[in-house]
Automatic annotation (TrEMBL):
Enzyme class: hydrolase
EC numbers, comma separated: 3.1.4.-
Occurrences of domain Calcineurin-like phosphoesterase (ranges): 4-149
Pfam families linked: Metallophos_2
Annotated protein name in UniProt: Phosphoesterase
Species of provenance: Microbacterium limosum
Alphabetical list of NCBIfam families matching this protein: yfcE (TIGR00040)
A single GO molecular function term of this UniProt record: hydrolase activity
Family the UniProt entry places it in: Belongs to the metallophosphoesterase superfamily. YfcE family.
Keyword set, alphabetical order: Metal-binding
Cofactor field: a divalent metal cation
Length: 164
């Protein structure tokens, strides 16, 4: 069995866009699980995504009480034998790998957001750090982005950064 994943963060709706881009909705339709690393801004984004796939998400620094009541600050789940954690913010990029290895010792993949900067690295301990960027606010990046991946038998494969 395998699980198709869509990774999102920092949707900032309605601040940066009025709604999710159509490409995100299509990708959610193709996914078994959407992982969102916070800064939804509007609970309507969570509702929208839940209409397309199962959702695992956390709240971010721009999310209000409505989202904080529905979502945790840190989410953890085993998916196809892979230990996932999701958090919005990991702090400065310098020494991120060392800090996250210490903060998430029993994790194989950590999905995070906040910076709007795509990130895909593996620490010395083997922890994989993934930031899908933002599908609505590119900031200093050339394009808005999201990620897809496949969790299969303890292996995360086919990780792709998708420009929008």
């Amino acid at each position: 069995m395998s699980t198709r994943l869509l990774l999102l963060a920092d949707t900032h709706i309605p601040g940066r866009a009025r709604a999710l881009p159509d490409a995100v909705r299509r990708a959610a339709d193709d996914a078994d699980l959407v992982i969102h690393a916070g800064d939804w801004v509007s609970a309507s984004v969570l509702d929208d995504l839940e209409g397309h796939a199962s959702v695992m998400g956390v709240w971010g620094n721009n999310d209000g009480p409505d989202l904080r009541e529905r979502l945790p600050e840190i989410a953890r789940r085993g998916i196809e034998g892979i230990r996932f954690a999701v958090v919005h913010e990991t702090g400065d990029a310098r020494r991120r790998e060392a800090r996250m290895t210490q903060a998430f010792p029993d994790t194989d993949v950590l999905v995070f957001g906040h910076s709007h900067i795509p990130w895909d690295t593996r620490t010395a301990s083997g922890l994989r750090l993934l930031n899908p960027g933002s599908p609505t606010d590119r900031r200093r990046q050339p394009r808005c982005t999201m990620m897809t991946a496949l969790a299969d038998a303890g292996d995360l494969r086919d990780v792709a950064l998708i420009p929008l």
